[in-house]
Write a structure and sequence with these properties.
elongated; DNA replication protein DnaC; ATP binding; IstB; 243 residues; alpha/beta; nucleotide-binding; ATP-binding
């Protein structure tokens, strides 16, 4: 049952921009005044942390949640769970190292990059996820559209940027130049996770210029952990049918 005290406290919490709490669940037994304050403030910290996570996830553009626990390391044996867990301390982000997942479609590149992205978000890092074609569009329109300028501004503030599907579609020489400018700006400042279905020898084919390709790869792999993933595509192996 609500009391005048609860109503008064909630009014003050609103004025102080504090998160709402369930007082009956938070204080199930008898507590001293100091214990009650400690419990209340601890709950506020937890709730604000959850809210900050939600905001970071929304801004990041992350796709559907993926986890390392949900990845079938038995099926994809060219990479191990231990390798991924060693990356979960995220010291590599602090040192602006990059990660590249290379391999054919459906071997788990996007799953692993997304799982690392969500883990980084929950650690408090600013993360951004986008496909290469989306990044190119932002770079091409940043001078003429406010939405692209906002997205680019967020990218420059991010601590980890995941660029998915590099190599799936060809880009023009102008677009390759824009991509080089962006990669150069991120170099040794922001960590990148790149997923690509192309080996390095094929990059000049979709980027359309060997000089630009060399310059981009030079910056990407200078401080980088590279995972070459092989095997049959997971979705093809476990495809679902209607009948």
């Amino acid at each position: 049952m609500r009391t005048k005290s609860v109503d008064s406290i909630e009014t003050m919490m609103t004025k102080l921009h504090l998160e709402k709490v369930d007082f009956h669940s938070l204080f199930p037994g008898e507590h001293s005044p100091l214990e009650s304050i400690d419990l209340f403030l601890s709950e506020q910290i937890r709730l604000k942390g959850n809210k900050a996570d939600e905001i970071r996830i929304k801004r990041s553009g992350m796709p559907q949640l993926k986890t390392l626990e949900g990845f079938d390391f038995g099926f994809q044996q060219s990479i191990t769970k231990e390798q991924m867990l060693r990356l979960s301390d995220f010291t590599w982000i602090e040192q602006a190292y990059n990660i590249m997942f290379l391999g054919p479609p459906s071997v788990g590149k996007t799953h692993l990059s997304t799982a690392l992205g969500y883990m980084a978000l929950h650690k408090g890092y600013a993360v951004s996820f986008l496909c290469l074609d989306e990044l190119i569009k932002i770079l091409k329109t940043a001078e003429i559209t406010a939405s692209s300028r906002r997205k680019l501004k967020y990218l420059y503030k991010a601590e980890l940027i995941i660029i998915d599907e590099v190599g799936f579609l060809p880009v023009s020489k102008t677009e390759s130049n824009l991509l080089f400018t962006f990669i150069a700006a991120m170099h040794e400042k922001t960590s990148l996770i790149i997923t690509s279905n192309k080996g390095f020898s094929e990059w000049s084919g979709f980027l359309g210029d060997e000089v630009i390709t060399t310059a981009i790869l030079d910056r990407l792999i200078y401080k980088c952990e590279i995972f070459n993933m092989t095997g049959e595509g997971y979705r093809l192996k476990y495809r679902k049918t209607i009948l």
